[in-house]
Structure formats: C-alpha cells, structure tokens
C-alpha cells in the first residue's frame, strides 16, 4: 500500500522529473550556471521564503489539534529564526546586501507560486496546504541527493557546492522528513476519488510552479 505522497508523485512523474532534474540544477552541479542567474534566483528566493513563512502561519491557523499546531509552529520559526538569517548571510557571500534583498522586485513566477500555495490553504484544509507545500520541501531534498550521485557533479571549485551540501545535509533532510510525515499522516485509503483528484491537481500545479521558478533563474537577463 503506497503513501499519499508516493501516489501523488507517481501521478505527476513527468513534471516531477522536469522539476527535480531541471537544467538549472544540472548547471549548479557542474558549476556552469552563470553567476548572475544564481544571484537573481537568490534574490527572488528571499521573497519566496518570506511568503513561505506566511504559509506556515496559515498552517497554524488551519490546525485542528496540538500536533498539527506544533508542526506548523516549528516550520514557521525554522524559516523566520534560522533559514532567513542563513539566506541573508549566504546572499552576503554572493555580494548581495540585505537592502538589495528588500528592494527586490518580485517576479511574476514567484508571485504565482507563493500566492497559489496560500490560496490552496485558504480555500481548503490543512492537507491541501501541506500538499501545495510538498514539492518545495521534498523536492529540494531529493534534488540535492540526486545531484550528489550524478557523474557530471563537480564539487571542487564549484561556487554552488555549499548550496548542494546544505540541502543534502542531515538538518535539511530532517525538515523534509517531518513534512513527509505530516502529509502521510492521512491514509490514502481514507480519501475518496474526488478528494484525491483535487490533491493530485494541487501537487501537479505546485510542481509546475517550481519548474517555472528554475526557468525564471535561467531566463534572467
Ligand atoms: C523556489 C524554492 N523552492 C523550494 C525551496 C526550499 N524551501 C523553501 S521553504 C522551505 C521550508 C523549509 O523550512 C524549503 C525547503 C526554496 N528555497 N525555493
């Protein structure tokens, strides 16, 4: 018997592969990604993380018991107290100041993605929101592990090695495991066909929005 996430991933296999094996991440791994593309991505990702923190605030609101509330709270404080500070520090190493981050004009793929996730949460239940968040959280963990196993990976003198190691690291893998557990707390057999179809649509849309986010990084001028 498969889990809910295994089912969703299998229903969205081509998109999932396009997202997790995108040219952007391949170029991170072999170190050929133009620096300005990565800098553009980092600036947009700062705004992205702020909206994702808000989404976990919404997850707290949608929680129905202490277990769910604690999960949402841990994710919210993880982003606000740890990840955003790390992101600001990391951007600083790339020569991007906090002021530049705050003055970044949000791209339309970024807007589409973050607002879509929040819309799923507002219109639906906590599960809809968790599934909208899943490609983001689980995808990055999978991407980093996949990249580490690829023959085209070059870690020596690769300016993106730290990024890959961060997402492949134990700390991030635990964040991904916690979200997987939250999504899979629902038994697949307890969901009827229509409910499952809605969740497949949400997972598919969020996965396609991740593809657009990578593409935004590559297309920057
Ligand atoms: C476009 C985009 N997609 C996914 C992530 C990864 N990520 C974003 S929020 C979050 C939650 C972790 O507490 C994680 C893993 C990213 N940074 N940017």
Report the strand count: 0
Per the CATH scheme, the topology name is: Heme Oxygenase, Chain A
Helix content: over 70%
| Associated small molecules | the ligand Cc1ncc(C[n+]2csc(CCO)c2C)c(N)n1
| The CATH homologous superfamily | Heme oxygenase-like
The assigned CATH architecture is Up-down Bundle
CATH class: Mainly Alpha
Largest sheet: none
What structural class is derived from the secondary structure elements?
Answer: mainly alpha
Written overview of the protein:
This protein has 221 residues and is mainly alpha-helical. The protein has one domain: Up-down Bundle (Heme Oxygenase, Chain A). Helix content is 79%, strand content 0%. The protein has 11 helices and no strands. Helix 4 runs parallel beside helix 7 and helix 8 packs antiparallel against helix 10. The longest helix is centred in the first third of the chain and has 28 residues. The chain is globular and about 50 Å long. The relative contact order is 0.19. The site of the ligand Cc1ncc(C[n+]2csc(CCO)c2C)c(N)n1 has 14 residues, from helix 4, helix 5, helix 8 and helix 11.
